């Protein structure tokens, strides 16, 4: 039979111009379904075992349909279908491989071969033939049969849940984390304990201030680089010069903003004690309260902008030779910056004093407020930069590579180095907090009270004595030292959290989802710390050390607020960079920053600061 067939094939192909596909599987062959279309003859050759197997498959499919129709679990039907699909796919793949190898000379006729296979799949429904014809030989074993069984009514197979992609997973994390964070802060600001409510508003206000300052400084810096400092070459020491110019610009802006808002350059309003009537006194008190709130708002924002400008300048110095050679050399930037910036601040204080005494030789309330807010802003901006540079050098020592301003390390770091790094940074952060508290206690012992410019302080009595104390270089040095230690805790814990993430979850390194996890964990731990600090404060207040305790706890709360603020700032920076890269338009990042500022600044000025001031009055 086979010899006769092989002898007839050339004649048929030559006479009728027929494309003939022959599939040989076993030695015993049988010819079925011989058709006579108008353009030739199609011959399908199958063996008896294959015909029997196809019959069994059709019967098996019918039994599965019966199971589904009688309400059986779709999952049970899926198991049968999957087992049968795997067995059928393996056999078809082997059969097709044999047939295709034997008749490679007829490769130009694969189209009709697909049709032929479609007819053979009638026992399985139209889906099998369509899948095999559409997807060809290589995909028949995997996809064609699965599609056919999908059409046979196996609804369970159609409802299989696929693994979510990265975008869906990130959005899911954002939804859960965002709701959790918002509700946690809601519980804290509505806590029955007055102190916890005050600490919560303190953290919210500082975090919002940092967020706005980063956005505003980024917009202004980019515009200044393009239109004012465009002549400075970028690279090496050119970047240092550019960042230094921006830092000086922000320093001058902070001095001018506080001077303008305090009324030191113009005719000042009367003070409440000089009022003629009670109504006038109330109006003057409200006027001065609004003026002080405005100074704390805009002066604080510009001060943080100046602080982040100092951060960028010191980072550029540490990235330049010879400071980038080793951790020790990079650490030398810290004392050098301390000396230079302190001299600049002393010159600014001398200038403010001379301006205040120019008119009548007496320092008025507005001029005293200008000096107070200015020095507070100077201290915060300098300490922000010094603490960042110090922790950056320590990270260089602990991990073995210099991180960028977001504590990203792009060089290859071994897992052991990450583990050593987070442990060293955690220890350094805790030691920094203890040193900061010890420095505060030393300052109180040397100068009495809590000296200087406390946060949330509204009293302006004995102004001459306060100005005299602020002129003392020792007091200013202790203020800067204590705040630098406390802010080092914030930068150190952020760097520690990122190193820990890279040590235990290296696949999340440089990913936004990793930084979101860090920010959420940091925020949760800081909120828990609020409750612990409140318990400690209540215990210490019971022993009569109320003022000193509140002052120290305020600094610790500010450290946690800074930690929350900078952790979320890193997330927003990465998110804005991703959006601007995806949109690929000019100045997209600037437009995003302006939009966010328009959303956050009114809430910060109109609601957060007044609420914080009211809470501080009740708490203190």
TrEMBL record:
Chain spans, region Disordered: 69-162
Q: Does the keyword Cytoplasm apply?
A: no
Q: Where is the signal peptide?
A: 1-15
The transmembrane residues are 171-189, 201-221, 227-252, 297-317, 329-348, 382-402, 422-440, 477-500, 512-531, 552-578, 590-608
Give the UniProt keywords, A-Z: Membrane, Signal, Transmembrane, Transmembrane helix
Ribosomal protein in keyword set? no
Q: What name does this protein carry?
A: Uncharacterized protein
Q: What species is this protein from?
A: Effrenium voratum
Q: Lineage of the source organism?
A: Eukaryota, Sar, Alveolata, Dinophyceae, Suessiales
């Amino acid at each position: 039979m086979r010899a006769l067939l092989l002898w007839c094939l050339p004649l048929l192909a030559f006479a009728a111009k027929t494309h003939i596909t022959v599939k040989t599987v076993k030695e015993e062959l049988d010819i079925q379904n011989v058709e006579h279309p108008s353009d030739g003859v199609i011959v399908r050759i199958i063996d008896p075992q294959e015909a029997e197997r196809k019959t069994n498959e059709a019967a098996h499919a019918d039994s599965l349909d019966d199971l589904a129709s009688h309400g059986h679990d779709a999952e049970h039907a899926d198991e049968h279908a999957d087992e049968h699909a795997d067995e059928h796919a393996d056999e078809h793949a082997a059969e097709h491989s044999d047939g295709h190898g034997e008749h490679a000379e007829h490769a130009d006729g694969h189209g009709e071969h697909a049709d032929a296979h479609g007819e053979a799949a009638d026992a399985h429904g139209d889906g099998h033939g369509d899948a095999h014809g559409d997807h060809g030989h290589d995909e028949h074993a995997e996809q064609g049969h699965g599609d056919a069984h999908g059409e046979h009514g196996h609804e369970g197979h159609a409802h299989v849940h696929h693994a979510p992609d990265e975008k869906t997973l990130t959005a899911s994390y954002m939804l859960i984390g965002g709701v959790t964070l918002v509700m946690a802060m809601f519980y804290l600001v509505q806590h029955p304990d007055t102190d916890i409510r005050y600490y919560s508003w303190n953290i919210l206000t500082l975090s919002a201030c940092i967020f706005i300052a980063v956005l505003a400084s980024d917009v202004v810096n980019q515009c200044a680089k393009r239109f004012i400092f465009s002549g400075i070459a970028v690279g090496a020491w050119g970047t240092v010069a550019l960042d230094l110019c921006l830092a000086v610009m922000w320093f001058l802006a902070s001095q001018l903003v506080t001077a303008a808002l305090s009324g030191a350059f113009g005719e000042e309003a009367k003070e409440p004690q000089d009022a003629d009537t009670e109504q006038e006194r109330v109006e003057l008190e409200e006027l001065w309260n609004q003026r002080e709130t405005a100074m704390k708002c805009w002066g604080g924002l510009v001060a943080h902008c100046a602080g982040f400008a100092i951060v960028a300048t010191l980072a550029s110095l540490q990235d330049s030779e010879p400071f980038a050679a080793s951790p020790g050399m990079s650490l030398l930037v810290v004392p050098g910056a301390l000396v230079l910036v302190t001299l600049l601040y002393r010159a600014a204080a001398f200038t403010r004093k001379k301006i205040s005494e120019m008119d009548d030789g007496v320092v008025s309330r507005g001029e005293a407020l200008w000096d107070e807010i200015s020095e507070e802003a100077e201290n915060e901006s300098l300490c922000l930069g010094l603490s960042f540079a110090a922790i950056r050098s320590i990270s260089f020592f602990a991990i073995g590579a210099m991180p960028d301003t977001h504590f990203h390390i792009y060089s290859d770091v071994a897992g052991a180095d990450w583990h050593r790094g987070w442990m060293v940074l955690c220890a350094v952060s805790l030691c920094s907090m203890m040193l900061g508290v010890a420095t505060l206690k030393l300052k109180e012992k040397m100068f009495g009270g809590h000296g200087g410019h406390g946060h949330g302080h509204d009293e302006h009595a004995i102004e001459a004595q306060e100005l005299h104390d602020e002129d003392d270089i020792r007091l200013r040095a202790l203020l800067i030292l204590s705040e630098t230690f406390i802010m080092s805790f914030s930068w150190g814990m952020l760097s520690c959290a990122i190193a820990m993430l890279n040590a235990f979850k290296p696949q999340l390194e440089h990913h936004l989802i990793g930084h979101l996890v860090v920010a959420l964990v940091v925020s949760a731990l800081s909120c828990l710390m609020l409750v612990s600090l409140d318990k400690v404060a209540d215990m210490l207040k019971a022993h009569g050390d109320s003022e000193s305790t509140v002052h120290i706890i305020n600094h610790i709360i500010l450290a946690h607020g800074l930690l929350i603020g900078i952790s979320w700032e890193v997330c927003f920076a990465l998110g804005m960079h991703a959006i601007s890269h995806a949109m690929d338009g000019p100045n997209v990042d600037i437009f995003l920053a302006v939009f966010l500022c328009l959303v956050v600044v009114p809430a910060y000025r109109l609601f957060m600061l007044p609420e914080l001031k009211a809470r501080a009055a009740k708490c203190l």
